[in-house]
Amino acid sequence: MSRILKSRDYLMRCLGVLLLFGLISLGAIGGCSDNNDGGQGSTGATTALTENDFGMDLSLVADPVRNLVVTFLEHPDSEGHENDTGEAGRDIIPHTYKRTLEHTFCWEDDDLEAGHFMELGDSGGNEILRLDVNGECVTEIIEAGDYVMTIWHDGRIERNHPIFIIHGHDGDLGARKGETIPEGVLERGVGFLSNILESLDVSIAQTTNAQTVKDNTRTLIISRSCISCNLTNANLTGAVLTGANLTGADLSGATLTGATLTGVIWCGATRDLYKDNCDGTITDKGTNFMWEKKTASNFSDQYTWFESLDYINQLNADKFAGHDDWRLPEAGQDGGKPVLETILLKPFPCKTIVGQLGSSSTPPCIDPIFGPTVGDFYWSNTTLGANPDGAWLVSFNNGMFLNNGKDFRFGLARAVRDVQ
Asked: pTM value?
């Protein structure tokens, strides 16, 4: 287990610990003030903030004695992750000190060769202190005001490094000034951290692949990966999930309103009635239709009705996803079978789901598992009854039917087939 670092007698109250979550080691920066910052005898509760919180709310600042901050420090060369609080290789956490404090900082990690470090600077860009991982604790008198804590990755280990920034109060974690560390203080410190982590719906005894929906949701938001996990009815409203790996995940009933879903890997994932087949197709288990899944290279391609048929014929010639019975879907007009409109979600019109790549004025009424989609008119295979030179289109924004000449070259196309 981790050791206790100290630079002054009263620092016995502060404890930096390293915990293990499955195979991911979590470092902890402990900060302890020699003053009670609660004011008027207040003992305000500790609350938790994550890197994602700061990325979504640029006005958010951490309270140096009231907030636990969780951040995933990314390798300087990392790719595929959106850096919520800074460039790759560093995380930036704004702090506001409401009053002057004598504050001591310690950072302990079981990786004795780690070279990470933390810098605290004031609003003018002046460095107040630097703290090296596994180095001596640093004590400073910090005036009331705004500060920026920057945490730097050493670039040595390839993985992202989870960091807990823990702030303690008088008597929180150990002995008072001049006393020795009592037996069991380490266990008390772990217990303190465990209690704080409960507000994040994370337990020390659980791994990062926890099976409960709340824990899986937290894991997904922090690491952007939740493979084959249970996310049923999860609330992911507004979550930044760029490039997230949801392979095999069950998201039935999950709320994704306003979520950033660009580049999400849906292979094998389930969304209510929909299943990603990992071959460029989506199966609707309610209708037994298999739909073509659009890609970033073709989702906005426009066709005449005749060109859309040529597109479908080419899919069949290529045996797209192993099948040669793809067709342009029918529409429920002029005796046509309702097929194309079954892919849409109600009510109309739809709210924008970030990552669907439809414009803000015409967001698509379609589940995000279908990939990038334009909320515009799509060709059907149903010919206009009163005019064989015309055909029906369906709006993916509001479900409206439109008929137009087959030489109209501004329609989109999506292939469908019946599941045998």
From this structure: 0.51
